[in-house]
Design brief:
Shape: globular
Strand content: 15-25%
Protein name: Lactam utilization protein lamB
Strand order of the largest sheet: 4-3-2-1-11-6-5
Radius of gyration: 17 Å
Helix content: 25-40%
GO biological process, one term: carbohydrate metabolic process
Largest sheet: 7 strands, parallel
Structural class: alpha/beta
Pfam families: LamB_YcsF (PF03746)
Distance between the termini: 26 Å
Number of strands: 11
């Protein structure tokens, strides 16, 4: 089965980080999550993953008709890509080019198109405000002629536009934002339980706002338009989290799109 690629969204979709095992660490329950998601962001060997895991995850996504994007991160398996790694512009460019290229080789072999690129973890977080890092990553992403997933209203969007990279707005409901709308990521977020994830997803899809880490309503730039919603597969309650978000997204799409 060949998964179709689309240039833009017509509804809210769910993307989940997959293929994040390495060594003795198995990563998330990808086989349980795949039937509930639209898109898989596959680790490319930097923060997690390996050649055999990439190949297995691509095959699993193809089996379930799930679109596949590349999920490059800082080369830091010990920190799972959630620590700050100092890199020059050339190093960041080369790292993203290398990791996305590695996944694309497995996608080409399986006859599955590369749907998008979405940086992982601390790389993604820093790219909100670090112009050098964001520019280097986007220059690498440009080489693959696919959309990038990113945070609207940040350097993600403006530098993607600089390189004519199609931009797909992304939102998060299992981690938090600061009161000024910056994504905090896993470090710094409060624990989100499935019932709250359902309610936040509903509110985000219908009103374009969600509660910050301190419960302040914030507009994160997706109001009135489809977006892609990210959830993490390495959380203990990931199955319940994704199921709650799936229910909310399906209800929003039925009513609005």
């Amino acid at each position: 089965m060949t998964v179709p690629q689309h240039p833009s969204l017509r509804k809210v979709e769910i993307n989940v980080d997959c293929g994040e095992g390495f060594g003795q660490w198995e990563g998330g329950p990808d086989e349980d999550l795949m039937p509930m998601i639209d898109v898989a962001n596959v680790a490319c060997g930097g923060h997690a993953g390996s050649p055999s895991i990439m190949m297995k995850t691509v095959a699993l996504a193809k089996k379930f008709g799930v679109k596949v994007g590349a999920h490059p991160g800082f080369p830091d398996k010990a920190g799972f890509g959630r620590r700050v790694i100092q890199m020059t512009s050339d190093e960041a460019y080369a790292e993203v080019l290398y990791q996305v290229g590695a996944l694309k080789a497995f996608l080409d072999s399986a006859g599955v198109p590369l749907n998008h690129v979405k940086p992982h973890g601390m790389l993604y977080i820093l790219m909100q405000r670090d112009e050098m890092l964001c520019d280097a990553a986007m220059r690498a992403i440009q080489q693959f002629n696919v959309p990038v997933y990113g945070l609207p209203g940040t350097l993600h969007e403006s530098i993607a536009a600089k390189y004519d990279i199609p931009f797909i707005p992304e939102a998060f409901v299992d981690v938090n934002y600061s009161n000024d709308g910056a994504l905090l990521g896993v470090p710094g977020s409060r624990k989100m339980v499935p019932d709250e994830i359902y309610k936040v997803t509903q509110q985000l899809g219908r009103e374009g706002v969600l509660p910050s880490v301190e419960y302040k309503p914030i507009d994160i730039g997706v109001k009135g338009k489809p977006f892609t919603l990210c959830l993490h597969s390495d959380f203990k309650t990931c199955r319940e989290n994704v199921a709650a978000a799936r229910r909310a997204v399906d209800e929003v799409n039925q009513d609005l799109y």
